[in-house]
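Design a sequence for this backbone.
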């Protein structure tokens, strides 16, 4: 097992380099960039993703203006009329005065030391910015995964035991309908019904806590926290539990039909003893081992619209704003962090298999 873990850890390095290289090349051919965005701000034509983005990367207002005699042809759209030296200063500030290969290798060296630099358009270090937004995404991802598993596993087991019954049929219909409804549309419906829309006004619409959270007692803080999470989690969990429920059901059905289950029943064991003493461990192998990956998946993706609708300032919204506003420092740093975490979680998922079932041996498997 030690050799397998070492091989997997060593493979993380070339995999990370490949991910970063592919995305770096794509960015080189993408239209626009931070220099163009600063130029657009100067020309008054820039439209940010949100009003929260401000010129934290430097004060460019009124800078670089040039007379007609100084105007020059520029590779940047909208740069006509600006001093060429000012454009060169912008390139130096964003690192674009260096060749792409040099920029890429320098970025990898810095990232290997977890030095992610500062945001282009926010006066804050990228790592601090990510840590600032992380509590929202962790709250949404962790609780969504826990709640969906808490619903899916008992429901999937009961559906397997009652396969083909009326309960199995109508719950399957509910699961299919819930899976088919987009989470953001259900979020809008919840707002209309319960958050001051056309009907009730029972839940808040902004943030994870109330303004007076610091003055509340600890029990009141916990209630306030879940009060703010109630609607976003409901919208996200609606479709999240469908896959795990059906996976649990199919895993149990596959195990229930095996010979060892018939042998256990023939020995006089009760159905509960057979189900939880023999079937559960084998059937839940793939479900439980997939928990780390499910958490990371929900942590990274699918929450952008929910965060926007409920005004939750998390990593999903941060990534969207960074891409739209060409804040490449944030884009590449978050890509690196998420890719590294994803690769580590994949390794943890494999190790979880061996923890649940020691018969699994990755040592004899080629990576």
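Sequence:
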């Amino acid at each position: 097992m030690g050799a397998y873990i070492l091989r997997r850890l060593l493979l993380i390095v070339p995999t990370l380099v490949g991910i970063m290289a592919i995305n770096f090349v794509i960015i080189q051919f993408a239209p626009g960039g931070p220099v163009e965005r600063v130029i657009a701000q100067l020309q008054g034509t820039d439209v940010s993703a949100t009003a929260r983005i401000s010129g934290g990367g430097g004060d460019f207002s009124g800078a670089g203006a040039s007379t007609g005699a100084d105007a020059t042809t520029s590779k940047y759209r909208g740069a006509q009329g600006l001093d060429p030296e000012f454009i060169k200063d912008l390139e130096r500030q964003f690192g674009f005065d260096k060749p792409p290969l040099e920029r890429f290798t320098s970025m990898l060296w810095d990232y290997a030391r977890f030095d992610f630099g500062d945001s282009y358009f926010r006066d804050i270090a990228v790592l601090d910015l990510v840590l600032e937004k992380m509590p929202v995404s962790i709250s949404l991802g962790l609780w969504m995964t826990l709640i969906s598993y808490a619903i899916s596993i008992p429901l999937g087991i009961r559906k397997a035991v009652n396969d083909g019954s009326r309960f199995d049929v109508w719950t399957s219909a509910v699961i299919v309908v819930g899976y088919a409804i987009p989470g953001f549309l259900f979020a809008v419906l919840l707002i209309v019904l319960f958050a001051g829309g056309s009907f009730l006004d029972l839940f808040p619409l902004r943030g994870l806590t109330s303004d007076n959270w610091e003055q509340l007692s600890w029990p009141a803080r916990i209630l306030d926290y879940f009060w703010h999470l109630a609607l976003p989690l409901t919208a996200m969990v609606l479709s999240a539990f469908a896959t795990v429920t059906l996976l649990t059901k199919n895993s149990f059905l596959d195990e229930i039909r095996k010979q060892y289950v018939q042998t256990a029943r023939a020995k006089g064991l009760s159905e509960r003893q057979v189900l939880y003493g023999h079937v559960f461990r084998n059937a839940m192998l793939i479900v439980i081992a997939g928990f780390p990956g499910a958490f990371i998946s929900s942590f990274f993706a699918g929450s952008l619209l929910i965060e926007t609708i409920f005004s939750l300032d998390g990593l999903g919204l941060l990534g969207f704003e960074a891409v739209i506003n060409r804040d490449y420092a944030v884009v590449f740093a978050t890509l690196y962090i998420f890719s590294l975490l994803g690769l580590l979680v994949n390794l943890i998922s494999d190790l979880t298999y061996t923890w649940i079932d020691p018969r699994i041996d990755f040592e004899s498997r080629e990576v």
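The CA atoms of residues 16 and 316 lie 21 Å apart.
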